Amino acid sequence: MIDENILEVKSLSKSYSVYSNLLQLEIDKKIIFKNLSFVLKFNTSLGVLGASGVGKTTLIKIVSRIEEPDSGEIILDGKNIKEYDYKEFATKLQLLFQNSFSMLNPRYKIKFLIKERVKQYFKLNNLEYNKKIINQKIEELLEITKLPKTVLDAYPYQLSGGQKQRVAILLIISLYPKIIILDEPLSALDISLQAQMLNFFLELKEKFKLSYIFITHDRNLAEYFCDNILVLHEGGSYEIK
Ligand SMILES: Nc1ncnc2c1ncn2[C@@H]1O[C@H](COP(=O)(O)OP(=O)(O)OP(=O)(O)O)[C@@H](O)[C@H]1O
Ligand SMILES: [Mg+2]
């Protein structure tokens, strides 16, 4: 299991068309990646580094099936990502966005948001559930994410930045994914919270045997947190460290 590749990206290419302002004719292609290949090993973290605009978000959009590549293939837990149905895919890979608050629908109390997710977990895995089982699961998840029970009665806007992020993580963890993609997960947090959050991610990694793709601008952070680093360069080249 340990040496297993949970994700294999094989010869991925992606370019965007560049249009002239006036006539909207395609005048050029901007190459984002060209034959990009890398693996993410089971229970490890891969950092993705690169200057702004180089294609980090594009890469995770492709890996999470929000966008299609021009060519190449992606194997997730032994199967091409195209072959997953939506539900099964959700149990394998989850994204924590830069702005995790966007995951929290402002109109609902946290309890409702968590309950819906937990139900989704039971449904996806064809497990029977009732109110008592759901409540137990919620308590367990709150404990793991070190959130007080009082957050359940709050609306998202009533939580602190750190709490919001923990709730977003709780929602992700509640589906027991194998891979979590973290897109600049610390950038919206106070410096004082960043180290705490980083250690929390490491704890979760061990507890749930997670693999992470960690997008960041910060080389030191990537070196501290990640087992391997993929550096993307302008024009489609890359290196793996
Ligand atoms: N849908 C699109 N159509 C055309 N060009 C796009 C599209 N999406 C992204 N791009 C371009 O692709 C390049 C890579 O964008 P991307 O968002 O992946 O960069 P990034 O590395 O995530 O940057 P940042 O660090 O600022 O978040 C940019 O030049 C961007 O303008
Ligand atoms: Mg980005």
Structural commentary:
The protein has a single domain (5-240), classed as P-loop containing nucleotide triphosphate hydrolases (Rossmann fold). 34% of the residues lie in helices and 27% in strands. The chain has helices spanning 56-63, 86-92, 110-124, 131-144, 161-173, 191-208, 219-225, and strands at 5-19, 26-41, 45-49, 71-76, 79-80, 93-96, 179-183, 211-215, 228-232, 238-240. The radius of gyration is 19 Å and the shape is globular. The two termini are 23 Å apart. The model has no long low-confidence stretch (mean pLDDT 92). The structure holds adenosine-5'-triphosphate and magnesium ion.
Number of strands: 10
Order of helices and strands: EEEHEEHEHHHEHEHEE
Shape: globular
Number of domains: 1
**What ligands can be seen in this structure?**
adenosine-5'-triphosphate, magnesium ion
The CATH class label is Alpha Beta
Low-pLDDT stretches are none
* CATH superfamily label: P-loop containing nucleotide triphosphate hydrolases
Strand order of the largest sheet: 6-7-8-3-9-10
CATH architecture: 3-Layer(aba) Sandwich
Structural class of the helices, strands and pairings?
Answer: alpha/beta
Biggest beta-sheet profile: 6 strands, mixed
Question: What is the CATH third-level topology name?
Answer: Rossmann fold
